Amino acid sequence: MASPRHPMPASPSMKMEDERRRESDDEDMKPLMTEMESTKNPREIPMGNAPDLGFVGRTISNNPEFFAQAAKFAFCFFGLQASYLTWGYMQELIMTTSFEPTERVPTGKFPSAAFCVFSNRFLAVIVAMIAVKIRHGSIFSNNSAPLWAFTPCALSNTMSSWSQYASLKYVSFPVQTVFKSSKIIPVMMMGKLLKGTSYPIGQYIEALLITVGVAIFSIASKTPKEDNTTNLVGLILLLMYVFFDSFTAQWQDKIYQQYGKKNVDPYQMMLGVNTSAICITTAGLIITGDLPIVWEFLAANPVVLKYNIITAITSASGQLCIFYTIKEFGPIVFTIIMTTRQLISICISSVVFAHPISLKAFCGAALVFSVIFYQIRRKYNSKSQRDGGGGGQG
């Protein structure tokens, strides 16, 4: 009796032929052909460079984390640029434009820088409350630092913001923008005063070069028609801004050190500072009697209220973008983005508001930003060496 025939095992060539046949049957269901397969099915080659599309698809699928980080960086970059470029433009528009005059404001200029600060703080408090409630489950009960601890920096933050708005009546926006870059020496001195922090001599030299660049820019930007008294008032306001802003940053860092960074997150800091600040600005508006004046002015110029709302929204969104950027990429990348924003702000202000920038002023600004980028590069190289040598995380 003949033994039963068993099916012969399929050879590798037969398996490959079967796979090719199944691929041919299912070819219409393939979303993307590889470069080798596309030569077998010419009718599936799209117009243009099909190999390039295949390469891009494979690159994205092979590097999902890289493209996710690139998307986050793009969100941070454009979020910060859109927020603070819009904020800076609206800030200058409010304080320098001549609107419809009123009985109490015959000049037509917006009468109260304090109200601009109030509107920014009002929305920031609402946003901070929502963020803290979502993150911690309650608004104030889980805060380790008491509200009074934020009062000194809230007062200084209010004064710095007021000085910044008020200075635009006396100096141009480019002068103010570059002047902000001269805060390094005051910040270092304030750190020495409040916390006893010491700094290497190289950082003092860098700060001095930035201050020289600011002086060159400010002097070169001055026109012969400008009144010396007006320039002096503007200079005093800018010095007030630098002093109070330097105090704010160092006091906030002191709060982090005193109560612990794990116990006070940026959203709680935002809530504490803005809660105290809105109490201060409200009291200031009542004491100075600005509220009825502003009310009358806004009634005659409702567009100014819209400008204030836009400024408040972009100020709050900018703060949230700052927290997210530092969390995801660290302070070095954040500094690069904000330095780029300062350069773009000067260019936009010069074009829109016709602020001329002479060659000398440009050289002064170039000196300032060259030192800033040198600092960024130095900090980046130092961080890279520490991470590479010590095995730290990036």
TrEMBL record:
Protein name according to UniProt: UAA transporter family protein
Keyword list, A-Z: Membrane, Transmembrane, Transmembrane helix, Transport
Compositional bias (Basic and acidic residues): 15-24
PANTHER family: ADENOSINE 3'-PHOSPHO 5'-PHOSPHOSULFATE TRANSPORTER 1, SOLUTE CARRIER FAMILY 35 MEMBER B
Membrane association type: Multi-pass membrane protein
Region (Disordered): 1-32
Listed Pro residues bias regions: 1-10
Listed InterPro entries: SCL35B1-4/HUT1
Pfam family, one: UAA
TM region(s), chain numbering: 70-90, 110-132, 198-220, 232-251, 271-295, 307-326, 333-353, 359-376
Annotated Gene Ontology cellular component terms: endoplasmic reticulum membrane; Golgi membrane
A GO molecular function held by the record: 3'-phosphoadenosine 5'-phosphosulfate transmembrane transporter activity
Location of this chain's protein in the cell: Membrane
Source organism per UniProt: Nitzschia inconspicua
Location, primary (coarse class): membrane
Highest taxon listed in the record's lineage: Eukaryota
